[in-house]
Amino acid sequence: MTLHRILSWTPAAVVFDCDGTLLDTERHWETARRRVLDDVGLTPAAGFAERAKGLHYTECGQLMADEGGRPELGADLADRLLRHFRALVCEHPVIMPGARDLVRAAAAFAPLAVASNCPRDVVEPGLEEAGLLRHFRAVVVPEGTIRPKPDPDVYLTAAQLCGADPADTLAVEDTHCGILAAVRAGLTVLGAGPWPGEETTALTDLWVETLEDPRIIRWATERTPLRTSPPKPAAAPSPTGSGLQQATAP
User: Fold this and answer.
1) Contact, 36 vs 84, CB < 8 A?
2) Residue 113, beta-bridge partner list
3) Count H helices, E strands: the chain?
4) Structural domain count, the chain
5) What is the pLDDT of residues 191-204, one digit of tens each?
6) Domain that holds residue 112
7) Residue 199 belongs to a domain
8) Separation CA 205–CA 160 (nearest Å)
9) Per-residue model confidence as pLDDT tens digits over 166-214
10) Which portions of the sequence form the region Disordered (predicted)?
11) Rounded to two decimals, what is the model's pTM?
C-alpha cells in the first residue's frame, strides 16, 4: 500500500502494540534486562539490546541465557526479568507522544484492540492508569494457545475480536518482532519510532518517527466509519476487572 493509499484508507479495525507504541515501557524492559544480567554476571554479545526488543519475556530470558553461555538458566532469567519489570512499571506510566490523540481519533471510526507480548496483568493496569483502556474492545496477550510475537496469533485474534478481516485491519507497531507478527497475520502496518533500518521499514506500509506526525493525526481525524459497529457482546470480567473481551483458547 503506497503512502497516498494508506492515508486515504479507512481500516475496519485498528490494533495497537503496547510497549513502545502506546506506553513508554521499553525503557523499563531495558533496565530490567540490565539488572538481570548484573544479577547473574552474564554478558551477552554485542547488539543484544536490539535483538531483545519486542520479544516475549520468556524468549528474552532464554536469549540472555544462550548468549551468556548458560542456556540452562533460561527459565530463571525469564522469571527474574518479569519480576524486575513489574517493579519498575509500577511507576506512573508515560504515554508515547501522539498515542492518546491517535487512539481517541481512531476510536471514533473503528473498533480498537491491543496486541501485546506483555502479561495481561501488566498491560491492562498500565493502560487503565494512562486513561486509555476504555477505548479498546479487546486486549490480546500470549496465553492459552495464543503464541507470542513474532507468531501472528495476537494480531489474528485481535482482528477477530474486533469483527474485522485481517486484510482490512491496521496494525500500529514499533519493533521488528511485532511488525513480523502483524505482517504474518496479513495486516497493513504503520510503523512508528526512531528509524530502525531498511530491513524493518521494508516490512511496513508506512513508517513515521512519531505518532505525533501531523499526517497521521489528520488522517485519523478525517476518517468516517465504514459501517456501524455491532454492539459489543457480553464478556466475562478480565482478571483486572476491566470487562474487556478476551480470547478463548480453542
Assistant:
1) yes
2) 15, 138
3) 11, 6
4) 2
5) 999 999 999 999 99
6) 3-24+94-222
7) yes
8) 21
9) 999 999 999 999 999 999 999 999 999 999 999 999 999 999 999 999 9
10) 220-250
11) 0.79
